[in-house]
Specification:
The structure holds three protein chains of three kinds. By secondary structure, chain B is mainly alpha-helical. Helix content of chain B is about 75%, strand content about 0%. Chain B has helices at about 5-30, 35-40, 45-55, 60-75, 90-125, 130-140, 145-155, 175-210, 215-220, 225-265, 270-275, 280-310. The longest helix of chain B has about 40 residues, at about 225-265. Chain C is an all-alpha fold. Classes of the chains: A alpha/beta, B mainly alpha, C mainly alpha.
């Protein structure tokens, strides 16, 4: 349900006349040593005053290039084609550098993705906010500080005067992004471009920032171009949506229409790939009385012990608790999802169960028992495999796919030398990769393909448990959907249990039988997937579920 | 800046100096040819060696010798030079100030020239100015000091032209003009090479900074380029640049030895060469300690400067 | 290798190195004159058709001496660096794969050794060992060892934390396998880059030692020694100083440029 419907009609009538930002038939390519790379082709869109246009695309679609083109901040090897870029009717391409300098920050602003890198680490936040006021509004430093304080208060910062004097590393991600937003709105520009402003933030903080954006946009009637890869998010906060794929706008129109009745193949695929909890990908459930396969009792992991010399030099490091007294049970053939924000300890659990970090407590696998400090033996390590998040890091760049997949087969004695090639071929097929990929190196594979090889490697050992630590978080939405389906398929065929860790609660609701919620190193909630909205839920679980954005129900489907 | 940070850095420095002292001691005592043999030469009789050995206390176990030595050093007794028959502390004292004058002059010149050059090259990346600075920097890092020194002598101190003296020293007390006149060539030699190193590092750090996200954000806020570079860029490039410059102090200390030798400038470097050629152990040990201490202190100072420049470091 | 040649600085470096390499290998055969041959008729001459780089105080042809001395100077650089790299890498790798206690102790000692400037360290060691090219090479190698140890350790540490190494540990691979097959092949890159650049330092250090009389001894044609011997005559025939000086600079630059090109190529950020 879009948040806009009530206000939209009368306002639209008033503002229908003038588009603030207008892109017409614009093309751009980059001249690289490997040839010309097309970034944008014949792109046309308009954003009227007081409206938000959501630009949705996956990585490499050109959405960020469009932002740079509008701001006239293209790299040296960019070659523009025909097409116009107009701000309130003025041709941006015809502006001189001096005019552009006066324009930026004053009439058109930008909010970046990662507040950690877009703020200067050695300047106080207040200085970075007031400098635009001083430069464009000609305010004195004192006036600029007062105005800055007011702006910060408006963006929901509780103690604005104090925040002005802080450095970026002393503020949280959410606070930093509020400062960046305040800076963008400071000179009351006509148009602001938002480039994935909440992607680097935690779910709950992201939701707050999105709500802040919506509120400010309505109050100031600024024309907003909101770039994102997240279709569900854009559907909630934008009036119009444009879908961009490989440099072309494939579909454009009012948000509700594009989502409910999309006309284009690509858009439909994109919508289908977005995780929606009501579309279960997994059928059936493990027998409820089955004996636990893998159990963790009072699992505790501490990081950062100080060495002797460090203590001598007075540098005793803080003991950071990664996980505290966690109890988990995984039954045969079950998919257990673990959700939580970053730092909640979910990856720590996986690493402890994989035998990568020392832990206190007990871990049981079937009848065997491992206590604190007792190292896991090879039988355990074979039975419990792990797949990591980062596709670039999980494969040894100096080994071919063939060697990577052969390793578990050789190590655990699962195949004779003569059978290796055949088995590797079979493994590749099971993850839907061509057999001739065996001769490739990791840098010749895409992110999704690398993850599939990593999954194949894990399943090669014929494990009983596979730990998946945010395995799809670095992938595009459509690639993510493929990999998840693959995983579910493999799980169904081999009957192994899966521990699926993710920050995306919608995704977890699609595939898990039960869900555990981690917060601050502790497991605060554990429930069956159908009981996600049941009354007995922990308050933190409820906050997570409320914060996450879900696509509205299509016609004929039951609601979320 | 917390006192804790300062204290930790001081302790680390002392630990480093302790290790240096052990190393110096080890090199001069443990390596083949004991001190007595080296002093007396190849033709000494075993009796003479034994006698001198006993006199120098060389028959005691090495850790006892080390403790005795370090004990007297810390108390201010640095022994007596074997060749010059003067207290080591006195000999070093005069030489120290002369070397210091050279080092400070070179560093000042370098900072004034190298840092702006590096910044300029980074701002005009890929253009002519950058390539010139880059080319000069490359050349500078590939030419040893003695070659630069000798070439400078050839071109600027040739007897026919006589613009500068071909070496030597006049104390400021005698003639300030003469002192400065003699100072020019050695300082220029050191400065040339250091400028090459440092401008290259500054350029590299500055380039990285100018390519970062917050610089892009600052430009897109409509701030003029000058403000962007000075206010946003420089502060972030200076911290890592200082770290690198402090490494170059080590290089400077090595260069001083060669330069003083070529230009006959009577500082610590020349003293060291003399002591090495004559196997004057107390002087060798003392000069090495002094130079290592200077290096360690300059590292400490640079750490403090970095902490002042970069707020993230202060509470580490 | 092909990629290096496409890189502009790499290409220049490669060219310089090829020239130097040819001089080292073919020097004595290609030289127009006998480097030691005196010729009192042609003393202290500038460049001419007969003597392309002029002659020294004994009438010896400078170009021939230069070609002859390429061996001493360059091989010194290579030898010293090789020794230093192996010793340093061994220590650094041990530090990088060991537990915190061992690592701490090793690195404190390394830090202590690094507090002595390179040239000073080398001078101390070569004096104590007695002069001569051989000992000078050992001295330079010892001086390089702490620096290389540090680089090796940091390369190993950064690879150790990458996920494919974690995956190997999780599989239950033996310690030896993890180090030999997963860590080392990926840590070699920065070491090679550093080693190449260090060769240029070694060449310069070696020339400096020879200049100070502690390295090569007469009648060697080592380039540093040539300059030392030329000092008295430098005003009368500057070519005696300029020629070996430029040769040293070109050799050092060649290795520097090549090493920088390697570094750019190994840096994952510049890939594609």
């Amino acid at each position: 349900m879009t948040a806009r419907s009530a206000v939209a009609a009368p306002v639209a009538a008033l503002q229908a006349a003038r588009p603030v930002l207008e892109v017409s038939n614009y093309s751009l390519h980059y001249a690289t040593p490997a040839g010309d790379v097309t970034a944008l082709e014949g792109v046309s869109l308009t954003v009227a005053g007081g409206r938000t246009l959501g630009l949705v695309g996956e990585s490499g679609s050109g959405k960020t290039s469009l932002a740079w083109a509008i701001l006239r901040y293209l790299p040296a090897n960019a070659r523009e084609g025909a097409g116009r870029l107009l701000l309130s009717g003025e041709d941006l391409r015809a502006k001189s550098p001096g005019e552009l300098l006066a324009l930026r920050g004053r009439r058109i602003g930008m909010v970046f993705q990662d507040p950690g890198t877009s703020l200067n680490p050695t300047l106080m936040l207040g200085d970075q906010l007031t400098e635009v006021l001083v430069r464009h509004r000609g305010l004195t430093l004192k006036d600029a500080r007062e105005k800055g304080e007011a702006l910060l208060a408006r963006t929901g910062i509780s103690r604005p005067a104090e925040m002005l004097r802080r450095y970026p590393h002393e503020a949280s991600g959410g606070e930093k992004q509020r400062v960046v937003i305040a800076t963008a709105f400071a000179c009351e520009p006509e148009c602001i471009i938002f480039d994935e402003p909440t992607t680097a933030l935690d779910v709950i903080t992201a939701r707050q920032i999105q709500d802040l954006f919506a509120r400010l946009q309505e109050e100031t009637r600024v024309a907003a171009l909101y770039i994102s890869h997240d279709l569900a998010l854009v559907a909630r906060i934008a009036h119009e949506v444009a879908v961009i794929h490989r440099g072309r706008i494939v579909e454009q129109g009012p948000a509700a229409r594009v989502l409910a009745a999309s006309r284009e193949e690509y858009t439909k695929r994109l919508i289908a790939a977005v995780p929606q909890p009501r579309r279960r990908l997994v059928r059936g459930a493990p027998a409820p009385e089955a004996l636990p396969l893998l159990a963790a009792e009072r699992l505790t992991v501490c990081y950062g012990e100080s060495g002797i010399l460090d203590r001598l030099l007075g540098r005793a490091r803080q003991q950071v608790t990664g996980a505290h007294d966690v109890d988990l049970v995984l039954r045969p053939g079950e998919i257990l999802g673990i959700v939580g924000e970053s730092g909640s300890g979910k990856s720590t659990i996986a690493r402890a169960l994989a035998g990568l970090v020392p832990f206190e407590g007990t871990v049981r696998l079937a009848e065997r028992c491992f206590g604190s400090g007792a190292p896991f033996d090879r039988a355990y390590r074979r039975a419990v495999q792990i797949v990591f998040q980062n596709p670039d890091g999980s494969l040894n760049p100096r080994q071919r796919v063939r060697d990577i997949l052969a390793r578990p087969l050789i190590l655990y004695g699962l195949a004779r030398r003569s059978e290796l090639d055949a088995r590797i071929g079979a493994l590749l097929e099971s993850v839907l990769l061509p057999r001739d990929f065996a001769g490739r190196y990791p840098h010749q594979l895409s992110g999704g393909e690398k993850q599939r090889v990593a999954i194949a490697r894990a399943f090669a050992a014929q494990p009983r448990v596979v730990l998946c630590d945010e395995v799809t978080s670095s992938l595009d939405v459509s690639v993510q959907a493929q990999v998840v389906r693959l995983l579910v398929d493999l799980q169904a065929r081999t009957g192994c249990a899966v521990l699926f860790i993710s920050h995306d609660i919608n995704l977890v609701r699609q595939i898990a039988h039960r869900i555990a919620v981690m917060q601050g190193g502790e497991c605060v909630d554990l429930f069956d997937v159908v009981e996600a909205h049941a009354p007995g839920r922990h308050p933190y679980t409820r906050r997570l579920l409320d914060a996450v954005t879900t696509l509205p129900a299509a016609a004929g489907e039951p609601g979320p | 800046m917390t006192g804790g940070y300062l204290l930790r850095r001081l302790l680390a420095m002392l630990l480093v100096l302790a290790i240096v002292s052990v190393t110096v001691f080890a090199i001069t005592i443990i390596l083949p040819g004991n001190a007595a043999v080296m002093i007396l030469g190849e033709y000494a009789t075993p009796d003479q060696i034994a006698a001198l050995g006993k006199e120098l206390g060389l028959d005691r176990p090495w850790h006892v010798q080390y403790l005795a030595w370090i004990g007297s050093v810390l108390q201010g007794d640095w022994g007596t030079s074997m060749r010059l028959s003067l207290p080591v502390a006195q000999v070093i004292g005069e030489a120290f100030w002369r070397s210091a004058a050279l080092a400070v002059a070179a560093l000042l010149l370098v900072c004034v020239v190298a840092i702006p050059l590096g910044v300029l090259a980074a701002m005009r990346r890929g253009k002519l100015a950058d390539l010139c600075v880059g080319g000069f920097a490359y050349l500078g890092t590939a030419v040893p000091e003695f070659v630069t020194a000798t070439l400078l002598l050839v071109f600027l101190a040739a007897p026919e032209r006589g613009w500068f003296p071909a070496g030597g020293y006049t104390s400021p007390g005698e003639s300030l003009r003469g002192f400065l006149h003699h100072l020019v060539l050695p300082t220029l030699t050191l400065a040339l090479i250091l400028t090459a190193h440092i401008s290259r590092q500054v350029r590299s750090e500055m380039s990285d900074v100018l390519a970062s996200d917050y610089i892009r954000a600052a430009r897109l806020k409509g701030l003029p380029e000058g403000t962007v570079v000075m206010r946003h860029g420089l502060r972030n490039a200076m911290a890592p640049a200082v770290a690198v410059i402090s490494l170059d102090v080590g290089y400077l200390l090595g260069g001083i030895i060669v330069v003083e030798e070529v230009f006959a400038w009577p500082g610590l470097g020349r003293l060291m060469i003399y002591a090495l050629q004559n196997r004057d152990l107390p002087v060798i040990q003392a000069v090495t300690l002094v130079l290592a201490a200077v290096y360690a202190i300059s590292n400490l100072v640079s750490d403090l400067v970095i902490a002042a420049l970069d707020p993230r470091v202060r509470y580490a | 290798m092909r990629e290096v040649l496409h890189h502009p600085t790499g290409l220049v470096g490669a060219v310089l190195l090829s020239v130097i390499g040819l001089a080292v290998v073919l020097g004595p055969w290609v030289a127009p004159y006998d480097p030691q041959m005196f010729n009192s008729m042609a003393r202290l001459q500038g460049p001419s058709a007969a003597h392309w780089l002029g002659t020294d105080q004994f009438g010896r042809d400078i170009l021939s001496r230069l070609l002859d001395g390429a061996r001493a100077t360059i091989l010194f650089g290579l030898g010293a660096t090789l020794l230093g790299v192996f010793a340093g890498a061994a220590i650094g790798i041990v530090a990088g794969v060991s537990g915190r206690a061992v690592d701490s102790v090793i690195m404190r000692v390394v830090d202590g050794l690094l507090a002595v400037p390179d040239l000073l360290f080398t001078l101390l060691i070569v004096t104590m060992l007695g002069g001569g090219l051989g000992w000078a090479m050992v001295a330079v190698a010892v001086a390089f060892t702490p620096g290389m140890a540090r680089i090796a350790r940091s390369a190993v540490l950064s690879v150790r934390t990458r996920e494919f190494v974690q995956a190997a540990r999780a599989r239950g691979e033996s310690f030896a396998y993890v180090i030999m097959r997963e860590v080392l092949p990926n840590a070699i890159g920065p070491l090679i880059v550093e080693a190449t650049i260090r060769i240029s330092f070694a060449i310069m250090l070696g020339a400096t030692l020879s200049f100070l009389g502690l390295g090569a001894q007469p009648p060697s044609t080592d380039w540093g020694l040539m300059i030392a011997e030329a000092r008295q005559f430098m005003f009368r025939n500057p070519w005696m100083v300029a020629a070996p000086g430029v040769a040293i600079a070109l050799a050092a630059m060649g290795f520097n440029l090549f090493g920088d090109a390697l570094r750019d190529l190994f840096d994952p950020r510049s890939r594609r």
